[in-house]
Design a protein that fits this description.
about 200 residues; alpha+beta; 5-stranded antiparallel β-sheet; 5 strands; 5 helices; single chain; about 45% helix; 2 domains; hypothetical protein tt1634
Length: about 200
């Protein structure tokens, strides 16, 4: 795990240590965890595994970000949940354009396109529906060059299933987690198996 202190963010996920829970059963609290891989293909495979766990009800995957850091230190982040300005603008333009067409004819259509595109782009810039941007920035700094890191925000996590899935990705590194302290150590151990 990295020695870089996590960002101080109010709200979720909780970065304060909590008392040890009695068992590793699913919990209601949201947890954030970042796992770093030596190549992009293993990172993408882990993201697919998390989505598979979500489809089986082993966790609720609220958001995920893949952070790629090259040898020269340049970083890219691909978010899976946050609204993107271009896509939101097009969607907003389409819907308000159609409503404008119904109400005001061709002139209403053109006006609706402009209003909807502007509103959609502004909404995408203001609304953050997934992992807080401060956490994404923190992971961009914390991860090592030439790695790909999956940062997941999940709730209702069946920890035993997460450990089992993590064992398939032996050699990956747990960068940071807001899971309870015992669960954090168990997840790190599962990734370290057969190393």
């Amino acid at each position: 795990m990295t020695s870089l202190p996590p960002p101080e963010i109010t709200g979720l996920p909780n970065t304060e240590p909590v008392a040890e829970a009695p068992d590793a059963s699913p919990g209601d609290d949201e947890a954030l965890f970042g796992i770093s891989f030596a190549d992009v293909f293993r990172a993408e495979e882990f993201l697919i595994a998390l989505r598979g766990m979500a489809s089986r009800g082993d966790l609720k995957l609220n958001d995920a970000v893949v952070v790629y850091k090259s040898d020269d230190g340049s970083v890219r982040a691909r978010e899976t949940k946050d609204l993107q300005p271009a896509g939101t603008a097009v969607s907003g333009a389409m819907w308000t354009g159609l409503i404008g067409l119904l109400i005001g004819g061709p002139i209403g259509f053109v006006a609706g396109l402009g209003i909807g595109a502007g509103a959609g782009a502004i909404t995408a810039k203001v609304v953050d529906v997934g992992i807080p941007d401060e956490w994404v920035e923190w992971f961009k700094q914390a991860v090592h060059p030439h790695t790909s890191t999956v940062v997941a925000l999940a709730s209702h996590v069946d920890l035993n299933k997460l450990y089992q899935e993590a064992q398939r990705f032996a050699g990956a590194e747990l960068v940071h987690t807001t899971l309870r302290p015992g669960a954090s150590a168990d997840l790190a151990a599962a990734l370290d198996v057969n190393r």
